[in-house]
Amino acid sequence: MAFARIPESTLEDILSRLDIVELISSYIPLKRAGRNYRASCPFHHEKTPSFMVSPQRQIYHCFGCGAGGNAFNFLMQYERLEFPEAVEILARKAGVALPEVQQQDEKSASLSTQLYKINEIAALYYQSLLNSTSGFSAKLYLEKRDIKEDTIKLFKLGYAPDRWDMLMNHLRAQGFSLNLIEKAGLILPKEGGGYYDRFRNRLIFPILDVKSRILGFGARVWDNTLPKYINSPETTIYTKGKHLYGLALSKEAVRESDSVVVVEGYLDFIMPYQQGLQNIVASLGTALTPEQARLLKRYTHNVIILYDADKAGEMATLRNLDIFIEEGLSVRVVSLPVGFDPDLFVRRQGVNSLKERIGQSEDLFDYKLRILRSRYNSKDVEGKVKISTEILSTINKFKNAVSKSEYIKKLSEALGVAEDALLQELKKAKSDKPFLATGQVSDKRPMAINPTERLLIKLMLESSGVVQRIRDELEPADFQDDLATRIVSVMFELAAQGRSVQPSALINHLEGNDTLRLICESTFMPEVSEEDKDKVVDDCIQRLKRERIKQRKQCLHEQIKHAQRLGDEKEINRLLEEFHHLVKQG
Questions:
Q1: CB-side exposure of 5: number of CA atoms within 13 Å?
Q2: Which domain holds residue 347?
Q3: C-beta atoms surrounding 399 within 10 Å
Q4: Would you say residue 446 lies in a domain?
Q5: Mean pLDDT over each residue of the chain, to the nearest integer
Q6: Mean pLDDT value across residues 115-133
């Protein structure tokens, strides 16, 4: 869906319907701290929680790394989203309709829009071929694999015929250029010139994002031809490590059950889903990535890994699962019998048997320990070293100190190794490098802002009445700091329009990390009592006025000296008159 430029009033409407505490607590645990909430910052490693969330002002701020903002900023930073994507997600959550624009034609549309369109047309063509006489063998294969007709339609399964240019000719007839078809990854260039279809004589599995847009395709043979799978290359709209197969269909089931089962392949996903296990996704056959973990984290914090016995036992796979722990997710693992994958297991033993095994899943720590003890002799020193090294690497990924302590205790009991020794090794494994989200700059330097100006900004953020009082008494230029001037100018402008000057709304009108940081830090300054507020505001106004007069007098003093050097009596008298007038004022 394409959107017009989103009006500020719509952004404010979205924010007014959301609770930032509820949003952030769906990602990280928050604890009450007076009027606010506190947590360990999700954007950098820290021992003492310095991440604050204000339910009253609807903003967050970390006093450690400087991260801060409103609900849009949090979602953008945590999920690595662009602003329009964050707005779209929160608009749906808030029940706010965004203004749509008409889809543009191919020549003027963005490349991304064109690629989504060409993929949709290609998918429809593949589907039509699956239901034609040429797709008989592919359709028969799906029937033998117990894939139902409704499932075929639901997943938009298709068939690529054993032809070199069938899809290419179809898309060209639809008006698409060879250049665009190649950018979509649907054709490949020949060595001697020309192009040919990438997918031939294969089942086609469209890959959708969470918005149900077709990003690319997976293609599978139904015989012993190698390679078994061919996938779309990465394109402008498709990055393999950022998406999960089936999530577009399963996300509501994942959210409702508050858990997700992760499998590896297309059919390993489709068969359990068809039989009723619908809180499931597939990793598209690649190693799991932090982006995929964060994608799942939008819907649940509980992950169950369901790989076949050989795959799940590989050390690379075991280490890869630590990604979920780093992202603060709970991970459990299900072991299937040797020779079974999820697809075959459901077809042979039924989905209820699979659900029973999921109910008996092991904690990742217990699973890894069991696998490692089956490989190494936990009775000798060398074996203990190898096992503890692998397990400590996992324990080190936990952010919660209690979890680390409990797992150290369990490992100590399992290996017969003193806890102190394990703790020493754990400290060696720790990295001193702070983790920061992409684009986030750690900045613990105190902001050199005039305390009076910072206090006035805080009081203005709390009350539109204070904004009006200050607007009647001062000009933005009376604030000496450039950041303060910028913020006050926008606040005055919004107040003049009768708009909100609440921090969460104000942030939408300003750019720059330092500006954002000043707003957030000012918001979390100590409270001023109601009975003292008027006096404090008056004192601050008078202080800034005196400061303004002082600086103007200094400036006039320099100008007078310059005029005296030039012998300009007229200019000297004018400047002296202004100087004496200022002396009377302050």
A1: 2
A2: 247-429
A3: 15
A4: no
A5: 85
A6: 96
